[in-house]
Every structure is written in structure tokens, then in C-alpha cells.
Design a protein that fits this description.
Keywords: 4Fe-4S, GTP-binding, Iron, Iron-sulfur, Lyase, Metal-binding, Molybdenum cofactor biosynthesis, Nucleotide-binding, S-adenosyl-L-methionine. Catalyzes the cyclization of GTP to (8S)-3',8-cyclo-7,8-dihydroguanosine 5'-triphosphate. It is an enzyme of class 4 (lyase). GO terms for molecular function: GTP 3',8'-cyclase activity. Its cofactor is [4Fe-4S] cluster. The chain is built from twelve helices and twelve strands. It has a twelve-stranded mixed sheet with strand order 7-8-9-6-5-4-3-2-1-10-11-12. By secondary structure, the protein is an alpha/beta fold. Helix 2 runs parallel beside helix 3, helix 2 crosses helix 10 and helix 4 packs parallel to helix 6. The chain has one domain: Aldolase class I (TIM Barrel, Alpha-Beta Barrel). The longest helix has 14 residues. The two termini are 28 Å apart. The structure holds S-adenosylmethionine and iron/sulfur cluster (2 copies).
Length: 337
């Protein structure tokens, strides 16, 4: 326990996820179940969402505190109007070395060239099945996997570095693991299998619906020869493997079966400007109010530094021992993953 506490304190602040909207054009049941996020759901009003100026200020302060990587997310980030303008501003911040974006890919065919022109180079694209029937049901909007695959092709042609994220749920899309692996091995795009997580309060999570890394790995090694790849940097979340004899790779995000809280280096800002130190938090620190109260840059920096230094989050470690230990968590579509 003492070692663990020391580990918690050592975690550096390296990357920042910024949610640019809480709205989405999908209703994936594991994230935004349609019965809760229906036509009457109250999304954030425009004046509660951080402006580009405010996002730029927050990102600059975090860069000053050590953040080198930014990831834009949502909701669906490509729904945010004029996103390339924001990307242009963020790429100009001193200290920021890398900007990525996580998207469901639906709007990519249209937007990929403009995003690239603005300076974005890396995309994580979510796709949970190739089979159309399965995928249409999963995304809750009847959208074909072909739409996302077309977006992926356009992004590759545009020059983006891409990873594909697949959330795997037992009894829902596990039969898609092998076809997805085959397809993206062939395309040379890294595929990451994500264990179904108990984010938020509304996705009906339980242990029975979790397919663990070990189980997925077992399915994959019946068909492929895989060898481990060393972590590329401290705090890398994916456990990566290469198909022997090729450069193609896969990865696993094991936050349920093998938690990694002691090396968690990630801060998160919600679309309404709250700073969260954990994906499973209940409460965030209100940065928007600081910005709108005209605090100076240094005052803002000190406040954010203190929040990070006082963090003691280890939700996934606790889940391994106690089950799902907290009820009132923020929703995934609000914080962005
Ligand atoms: N809308 C974009 C997308 O889907 O890529 C960005 C936001 S989404 C919340 C970010 C990532 O979280 C996606 O890869 C999504 O599949 C993943 N995700 C959402 N809910 C999840 C859950 N309950 N367990 C595991 N991953 C989840
Ligand atoms: Fe939307 Fe992404 Fe959540 Fe699916 S996972 S509902 S695409 S925010
Ligand atoms: Fe980081 Fe919280 Fe996830 Fe642990 S549970 S790895 S502290 S975000």
C-alpha cells in the first residue's frame, strides 16, 4: 500500500484530453444509450461550452505544466464547428509536440483534408464491427460500417497516421474480433481492442459483459502468431503485439482486467471546462469559471498544478478489488474517453 501511494505521487502530467463537444451523431449503447440520450436530453448550451480562446489558454497552461500531447475528443469532435481553426491554434502552442483526435469517423470523408491542412496528423477511429447488421445496431443510428471504412480510407490517402479502436462486449461483438484483426492487418492499421468499461452510470455495465484481454488474446493466437512490443514511452496505455514476420500490430486497453492507475499521466477537460483527474471521477475542478473571472495566467497555472498534485485517483485498481465502487460518475460522452 505504501509503495502504491508513492507511485501515485510520482505520476507526471504528460497528456491532456480535451472534449470539444458533448454532442454526438451516434448512440452507442455502451456510451450514450438512446433511452437516456433521447430527443429531450439537455446537452450543454453554447455559452457553457469553452470557446476556442479558452481552450487555447487551458492547453497553454497545461503545456507549461508539462503536457506534451493533446487529444481532441467528445461526444463527436467533428461536430464542433470550425474545428480546423482550433487545431491550427493548438499546434502553435509552445511545448505541444503531438495532437491527436478520436472520432467515430462518420464525417471524415468530408473533413479529413481540412483537418490535415490545419496540422492534425493522428487519428484514432472507433469501429466495433465490420458486419453491417452488428455495427448498425451498435451505433444506435443504423449507420453502415462502410461509411466509417470509407472515412478510414480517405484519412489514409490524406496522409494521417491511424489507429482503430474496437470496444469489445461479450455476447455482442466478440465474433467480430477475428474479421477486424484480418481486415486491419491487411490494411496495415493498428487495431486496439478495448475492454468494456463501467464509465458513467447508464451503460448497463457488468462483469459478465467484459471480455478480458486474456480471453481476446486466446482467440487471436489460435489464428495468428503474436509477439509483444515494448512500451514506447512511460505511461503508454495499450499493451501492444506484432504479428510475427510483419510490421502490423494490435493492442489491448486493459483498464478492467489489468488496471494501470499507478502510471496514469492523463488529465481531462470537459467541453464545459471542468478539469478531471480520472475518467471515473464524480467531480471536476471548474476551470471555465476561473477563466471567466479573469484570473491571470499564473493564478490559473497554480490552481491547476495544485489539483494535479493533490490527485489520488485509482478507480480501476479499486474496481479490481471491490467491483464497480462508485455510482455517480461522469458519462463517457461528456468527458470523451
Ligand atoms: N465519438 C468519438 C469516438 O467514438 O471515437 C470520441 C469520443 S468516445 C467517448 C472515445 C472512445 O471511448 C471511443 O473509442 C469509444 O469507443 C470509447 N468508449 C466509449 N464508451 C466506452 C466504454 N463503456 N468502454 C470502453 N470504451 C468506451
Ligand atoms: Fe458517440 Fe463516441 Fe460515445 Fe459512440 S462512443 S456514442 S460515437 S461519443
Ligand atoms: Fe487513470 Fe482513473 Fe483510469 Fe486509473 S481509473 S488509469 S486513475 S483514469
Amino acid at each position: 500500500m505504501a509503495d502504491r501511494v508513492v507511485d501515485q505521487l510520482k505520476r507526471p502530467l504528460q497528456d491532456l484530453r480535451i472534449s470539444v463537444t458533448d454532442r454526438c451523431n451516434f448512440r452507442c449503447a455502451y456510451c450514450m444509450p438512446a433511452e437516456i440520450f433521447g430527443p429531450d436530453f439537455q446537452f450543454l448550451p453554447k455559452d457553457k461550452v469553452l470557446s476556442f480562446e479558452e481552450i487555447e489558454m487551458v492547453a497553454s497552461v497545461f503545456a507549461d505544466l508539462g503536457v506534451r500531447k493533446l487529444r481532441l475528443t467528445g461526444g463527436e469532435p467533428l461536430l464542433r464547428r470550425d474545428l480546423p481553426v482550433l487545431i491550427g491554434r493548438l499546434t502553435a502552442i509552445d511545448g505541444i509536440e503531438d495532437i491527436g483526435l478520436t472520432t467515430n469517423g462518420v464525417l471524415l470523408t468530408k473533413q479529413a483534408p481540412l483537418l490535415y491542412e490545419a496540422g492534425l496528423r493522428r487519428l484514432n477511429i472507433s469501429l466495433d464491427a465490420l458486419n453491417d447488421e452488428v455495427f448498425k445496431k451498435l451505433n444506435g443510428k443504423g449507420i453502415s460500417s462502410k461509411t466509417v471504412l470509407k472515412g478510414i480510407d480517405t484519412a489514409l490517402e490524406t496522409g494521417f497516421e491511424i489507429k482503430v479502436n474496437m470496444v469489445v462486449q461479450k455476447g455482442v461483438n466478440e465474433q467480430e474480433i477475428l474479421p477486424m484483426a484480418e481486415y486491419f492487418k491487411e490494411l496495415g492499421v493498428p487495431l486496439r481492442f478495448i475492454e468494456f468499461m463501467d464509465v458513467g452510470n447508464s451503460n448497463g455495465w457488468n462483469w459478465e459483459r467484459v471480455l478480458t484481454k486474456k480471453q481476446m488474446f486466446g482467440m487471436l493466437t489460435e489464428h495468428f502468431d503474436l509477439e509483444p512490443i515494448d512500451a514506447a514511452y512511460y505511461g503508454e496505455v495499450a499493451k501492444r503485439y506484432r504479428y510475427k514476420g510483419s510490421n502490423a500490430e494490435i493492442g489491448f486497453i486493459t483498464s478492467v482486467s489489468e488496471s494501470f492507475c499507478s502510471s496514469c499521466t492523463r488529465a481531462r477537460i470537459s467541453a464545459d471546462g471542468k478539469f478531471y483527474t480520472c475518467l471515473f471521477a464524480s467531480q471536476g475542478f471548474d476551470v471555465k469559471s476561473l477563466l471567466r473571472a479573469n484570473l491571470t495566467y499564473d493564478e490559473c497555472k497554480q490552481a491547476l498544478k495544485q489539483v494535479w498534485e493533490n490527485r489520488n485517483d485509482r478507480y480501476s485498481d479499486e474496481r479490481a478489488v471491490k467491483g464497480s465502487p462508485r455510482r455517480n460518475k461522469i458519462e463517457m460522452s461528456y468527458i470523451g474517453g
